[in-house]
Amino acid sequence: MPHADSPPVFHATGLAKKYGRRGEQALADVNFTVPAGRIIGLVGPNGAGKSTLLQLACGLIEPTAGSLSVLGSRPAASAAHLARVGFVAQNTPVYGSFSVAEHLTFGAKTNPGWDQALAERRIRQAGLNPKQKAGRLSGGQRAQLALTVAAAKRPELLLFDEPAAALDPLARKGFLRNLMEFVLELGASAVLSSHLLDDIEQVCDHLIVLCDSRVQVAGDVRDLLASHARLVAPRDGLNRLPAGVEVIRTEHRGHYSHAVIRGGTRPGSLPYSVEPVSLEELVLAYMSRAADTGTGMNIETAAWESRR
Q: Which GO MF terms does the UniProt record name (predicted)?
């Protein structure tokens, strides 16, 4: 497990990334810090900038502005730093012409900290035939192979970019279970990028909501749930909330307003009905607020992307 004085997994300051001649904004003024030892859920609709953030974290691309440190250093600052990070990109890419065993041989030759015993054990547990060509594996089997190759280098940080989105429910459940086992065995931090909130709820203890190319909210899940609530008040009641209570999202139903708020969650601190908020409600509230402020993303689309 990380030491108390371990550097943050991530520290972003004014991070921005633009693409193309027209300067299409993928990330804008991103600021956040994530302590070591967390399993981070990076959630947001498609096109929010999740893949761009992970590619920056791996050193595959450079920021247009601002800075990002990963494990206390610039991404891909050296071969030694590269060895500390394992990455599973979208669609869990593997080499179709390579056998399962050849993937392990390649991993051993390219990673100085390669743990062959761990890799072979996990291949057996996943029921993979070492002689089988990766191109003939099922989606779930390819995901297990990619996860094994990433973890057998024994990194301090594992990054997963929508790794289970294309898998069927049973394969996705197995992948997430194995992800958790690897994280615990390695004592590593991990980032799971997904628009599937069920996956995030199952395995993550830290949350980053990315929408409209910006971080809308970030923090440990327990703290976020404790600091947010669902408020039910008369329609004009939201105009009389005390200082320090922020309304994230409001829906009007008949004579009452239903709002997700931040602050004012202590019992008796508000003269209205206050109830705990679910992680899904919290995420959708921030996504909807981002949509309302002009992201061009339809609210219903955001909700569907987060549930499917």
A: ATP binding
In 3D, which of 89, 192, 103, 194 has the Cα closest to residue 152? 103
Helix axes 299-307, 279-290, angle to 10 degrees: 150
Range of the domain at 29: 10-211
Do 70 and 110 sit in the same domain of this protein? Answer: yes
The model carries a pTM of 0.86
Residue 195 near residue 162, CB atoms below 8 Å: yes
Considering 180, 211, 242, which residue would you say is the last residue of a domain?
Answer: 211
Is residue 1 situated within a structural domain? no
Tell me how far apart the alpha carbons of residues 154 and 37 are, in angstroms, rounded to a whole number.
15
Indicate whether 70 and 16 sit together in one domain: yes
Residue 275 lies in a domain: yes
The candidate with the shortest Cα–Cα distance to 122, out of 100, 98, 102, is 100
Backbone angles phi, psi at 152, to 5 degrees: -70, -15
> Residue 3: what pLDDT?
55
Domains held by the chain: number: 2
